[in-house]
Task: inverse folding
């Protein structure tokens, strides 16, 4: 379990960010702070999605063909 | 002649193009914007009608965008549940017609073209949401839908409306992000975004159960917020009561239902895969549904504001539908799905009729509106028809679905919930009786509005059409029931039902 | 008290979430389904059959073009939302002439000097989206930022000339409209909405369609950003 947590520490980081954002949205009364919280949550989800595309030793998918490129699929998700 | 499957892409594209061109075409003239929106909705309704006729004859079909096969590209998949776009088009068309006179007084002049843009975008979102077969595409349409809904709630520009819109935005944004996170979990575990493909890939058993369960939880909770099920309903009463009446009719009749369609889609993924035992989730949904019915009705009894009362009644009815899904027996799922359709009809009748009353008299509480039945007999009659339907008295639209859900409760061996349902209906009966009583049998507090007369024809006609449909659907209620039946059986087939 | 309650709630939510991400396939491993299933197809065939060398562009504009079509509509929706909530009758007329804060000569000069370069860079980013990282969204943002800079430094009237009233509503809708236009062209050519011709002889057309979409997204994105800024400034 701990090992799995360590390999997926990037995902765990985005969960932590997600919870920080959620805390801001729920606990703060200031509307601007709520909005900032929403933004943190949003960023955490994008970070999670982009992190899924990482391949060890990969390069950016738009560059010249090379074995082991990173997966392109998750990138556009973050556009929203 | 456009070939058959093309209608499926058109049904989402026509309102989309119509929406983005509304400001450019109308150039600030509100009359032109209204006519343009009406024309766009007419074309969309025609496309939707074609699709529904086709699905009734030949069963589900799909449309791959760009010609890419399904896991690679995006596909639209039209099944019997997607036929809910029919009610979107019907209520949408009538609401646009109704808006024309309503917004003239209610909104600032330069906002009116953007009001129609937002309405059409809202319909685009709902239609796309119902017909897409791709999870991320579902999210994209949900975003179009949610963003336009927040803006429509706040569009009148009053302080209360802006606060209600903001509250809605906060809840809605959290739920959207939960849904997106869950889609991410599913994508990370399967590498696919196509719903059917995900379902077959998680069925292989190569994926650990914990991420799947979490994704299920996230999707369900996210859609529950959109559907305003009991503990997550707090945004609904303000948003629905304060929005302009045609918007309330759309939000209450249609937009909350997208959350329910979303729950159905999630079920389609998970039931088919047979990896998780969903019975505990179902039990939870049934309980939440039952609590929603009772709490919604309970809060509605104490409301003085007529639109507030209708908003709480929406929570009760969402409870009925969710209970129907949660019971997971053929009867209850059929009843629940058809109640999506019927409740949209009924709630649109009620909100549009209430809008007529508020528009003409300027009052919105039951006390102020006493005796309005003499001043606006047609509108009040429509309102009463809606009230009778929503309680579920036999010859009207509300009866058959509730009957089916109750039957389903007995079929599933949980008669307690059947009893809860009838108990809830009694509660609902109480407050609608209170409303009808004060409209017809009490002395008017403000006698001056006895002279106001009925609302203009373009507002009255949608109300009357919807009210008569409530009656007609009560008599022809078997048609949607038998229409949705194959889909319900297909959904439940993996359970051995 | 409320804070403690919220924190307890969050921990209750976080534990299963952390368990879920720990149960996902290992991060970064080449055997992940995210890498082996659909993406593998894109990486293998993208450059040949989709019309752009940049696989990300292939994927957002060709394979999953309809998502981007929706995404562009989301951007337009945010514009409509801002206009719907903020527009007022005669807002500009009613607003008292704001006391002009004089902008330093140096700032004005530098802004004027850099503006053409920023514009050229934006156009470069938009047009090169199919070869290198970049594209309509990014280039459009740069263009929009340019408008905002001009509006702040050189004054609102100077900026308004960049976005004339006549074509403005069309420019704001440029993103979804070019998308639909190209999609319908694809419908005529291949029989599917947003279909791109697959024959090698028509490879130039494929690339041209992608570039047209990129331009549409760029122009539309910039117009939306600029008008949202303008409206909010007037509020």
Result:
């Amino acid at each position: 379990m701990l090992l799995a947590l360590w390999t997926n520490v990037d995902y765990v980081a985005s969960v932590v960010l997600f919870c920080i954002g959620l805390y801001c949205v729920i606990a703060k009364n200031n509307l601007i702070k709520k909005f900032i919280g929403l933004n943190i949550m949003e960023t955490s989800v994008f970070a999670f999605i982009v992190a899924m595309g990482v391949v060890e030793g990969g390069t950016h998918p738009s560059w010249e063909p090379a074995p082991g490129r990173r997966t392109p699929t998750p990138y556009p998700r973050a556009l929203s | 002649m456009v070939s058959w499957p093309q209608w499926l892409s058109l049904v989402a594209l026509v309102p989309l193009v119509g929406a983005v061109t509304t400001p450019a075409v109308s150039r600030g003239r509100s009359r032109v914007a209204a006519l343009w929106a009406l024309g766009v909705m007419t074309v969309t309704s025609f496309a939707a009608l074609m699709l529904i006729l086709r699905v009734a004859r030949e069963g589900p079909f799909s449309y791959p965008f760009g010609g890419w096969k399904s896991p690679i590209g995006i596909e639209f998949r039209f099944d019997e549940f997607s036929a809910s776009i029919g009610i979107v088009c019907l209520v949408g068309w009538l609401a646009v017609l109704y808006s024309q006179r309503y917004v003239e007084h209610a909104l600032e002049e330069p906002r009116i073209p953007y009001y129609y843009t937002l309405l059409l975008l809202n319909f685009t979102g709902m239609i796309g949401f119902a017909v897409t077969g791709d999870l991320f595409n579902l999210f994209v349409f949900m975003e179009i839908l949610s963003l336009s809904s927040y803006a429509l709630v706040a569009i009148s520009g009053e302080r209360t409306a802006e606060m209600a819109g903001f509250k809605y935005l906060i809840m809605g944004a959290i739920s959207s992000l939960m849904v997106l996170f869950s889609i991410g979990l599913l994508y990370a575990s399967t590498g696919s975004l196509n719903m059917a493909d995900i379902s077959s890939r998680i069925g292989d058993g190569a994926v650990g159960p914990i991420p799947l369960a979490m994704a299920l939880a996230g999707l369900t909770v996210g859609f529950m917020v959109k559907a305003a099920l009991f503990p997550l309903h707090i945004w609904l009463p303000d948003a629905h009561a304060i929005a302009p009446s045609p918007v309330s009719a759309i939000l209450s009749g249609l937009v909350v239902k997208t959350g329910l369609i979303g729950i159905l889609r999630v079920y389609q993924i998970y039931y088919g895969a047979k990896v998780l035992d969903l019975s505990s989730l179902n039990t939870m949904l049934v309980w939440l549904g039952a609590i929603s019915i009772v709490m919604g009705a309970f809060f509605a009894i104490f409301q003085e504001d007529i639109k507030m009362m209708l908003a709480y009644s929406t929570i009760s009815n969402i409870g009925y539908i969710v209970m129907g899904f949660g019971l997971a027996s053929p009867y209850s799922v059929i009843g629940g799905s058809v109640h999506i359709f019927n409740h949209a009809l009924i709630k649109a009748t009620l909100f549009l009729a209430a809008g007529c009353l508020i528009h003409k008299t300027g009052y919105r509480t039951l006390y102020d509106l006493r005796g309005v039945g003499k001043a606006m007999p047609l509108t009040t009659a429509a309102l009463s028809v809606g009230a009778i339907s929503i309680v579920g008295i036999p010859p009207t639209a509300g009866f058959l679905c509730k009957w089916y859900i109750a039957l389903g409760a007995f079929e599933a061996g949980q008669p307690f919930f059947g009893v809860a349902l009838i108990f809830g209906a009694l509660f609902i009966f109480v407050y609608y009786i209170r409303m009808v009583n004060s409209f017809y049998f009490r002395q008017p507090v403000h006698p001056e509005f006895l002279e106001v007369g009925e609302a203009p024809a373009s507002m009255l006609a949608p109300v009357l059409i919807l009210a008569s449909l409530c009656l007609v659907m009560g008599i022809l209620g078997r048609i949607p029931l038998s229409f949705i039946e194959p889909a319900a059986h297909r959904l439940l087939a993996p359970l051995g039902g | 008290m409320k804070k403690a309650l919220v924190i307890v709630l969050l921990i209750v939510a976080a534990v299963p979430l952390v368990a879920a991400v720990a149960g996902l396939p290992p991060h970064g491993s080449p055997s992940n389904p995210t890498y082996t299933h659909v993406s593998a197809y894109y990486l293998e065939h993208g450059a040949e059959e989709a019309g752009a060398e940049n696989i990300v562009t292939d994927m957002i504009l060709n394979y999953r073009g309809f998502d981007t079509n929706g995404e562009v509509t989301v951007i337009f929706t945010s514009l409509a939302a801002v206009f719907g909530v903020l527009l007022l009758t005669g807002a500009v007329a009613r607003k008292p002439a704001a006391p002009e804060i004089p902008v330093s000569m140096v700032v004005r000069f530098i802004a004027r000097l850099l503006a053409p370069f920023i514009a050229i860079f934006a156009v470069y980013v938009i047009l090169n989206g199919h070869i290198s990282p970049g594209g309509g969204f990014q280039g459009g943002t740069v263009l929009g930022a340019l408008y905002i800079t001009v509006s702040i430094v050189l004054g609102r009237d100077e900026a308004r000339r960049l976005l004339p009233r006549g074509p403005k509503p069309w420019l704001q809708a440029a993103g979804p409209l070019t998308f639909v236009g190209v999609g319908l062209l694809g419908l005529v050519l291949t029989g599917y909405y947003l279909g791109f011709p697959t024959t090698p002889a028509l490879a130039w057309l494929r690339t041209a369609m992608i570039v047209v979409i990129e331009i549409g997204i760029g122009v539309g994105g910039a117009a939306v950003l600029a008008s949202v800024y303008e409206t909010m400034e007037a509020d």
Observations:
- Chain C has a mean pLDDT of 80.
- Chain C touches chain A at residues 2-3, 6-7, 9-10, 13-14, 17-18, 21-24, 26-30, 32, 34-35, 38-39, 42-43, 46-47, 53-60, 64, 67-68, 71, 74, 131-133, 137 (CB under 8 Å).
- The first helix of chain C runs from residue 2 to 22.
- The radius of gyration of chain C is 23 Å.
